Give the backbone structure.
Amino acid sequence: MTTAALALVLTSAVMHASWNFLVKRSRDKVLFFWAMAVVGLIGLTIPGVIFAIVDGFTPTMLGLASVSVCLHASYAVTLTASYKYGDLSSVYPISRGMGPALVPLLAVVLLGETVSAVAVVGIVLVVLGIYAIHIDQRFLRDFSHPLKMLAQPGTRLAFLTGLIIAGYTISDKTALNHDLNPVTLSLFDVTGNVLGLLPAVIVATWSELRREWDLDRRRIVGAGILAPAGYLLVLIALTTTRVSYIAPSREVGIVVGTAMGVLLLHEGFGLSRIWGSTLVVAGVVTIAVAP
């Protein structure tokens, strides 16, 4: 990976952790996320359309972009639900770390591929990290306590979100390989976020949406800029190198997001979540470098 690509990915990681922090601290996760997605949609519509016209837009591109819309719509639903039930310092490292760990396992089960010993070590590190994230110092003698925590709704939704993240990373890389412009693809991705939460927004009253905007408009706009801008940096980096390099490097943000939850939101478990998230990142990187 080039230095420029690494810089783009690391910057994106911090931006991604920051907007997830803003979503978690919001009063209504669904309305906040939908409003920030609309902000991103407004900002990307004109440049996305212009790039589509200038670069060309084929039926194949439309098909691939439609897949990304569906995956990002699902991602918006599961992510907001996971933050409703779980902590940022728990949901964030699980959802970001599970994708890279699940891909090799799915390849073995579905494609009959083999996994190297180094990759197995990486998967074990991810699993240990997720276990460590749920260690409560008040229950150190109860080794089953993290397993009980893993059964909670927020954790289960975080696992599902991680699976979706793995899916849209591969889908978006495929779209880029077919010469779909990153800005245009970002437009489709954020459109998926808007559409995914639209049914829940329709059910909500106008006064509820207006209240969320009045209470958090600055943070909504900030998150609405950070989310598409951060992912756009990843898409640009994907045009220069392999997805197997980009995806793990981006997960450095796991530690940043976890620290925000522990230090700024005062979530429980403290240091166990920070060093647990570090294990997750180590596992992801190990999987990436495995032969």
Observations:
- The chain has twelve helices and no strands.
- The CA atoms of residues 225 and 291 lie 37 Å apart.
- Residues 3-93+153-271 form one domain.
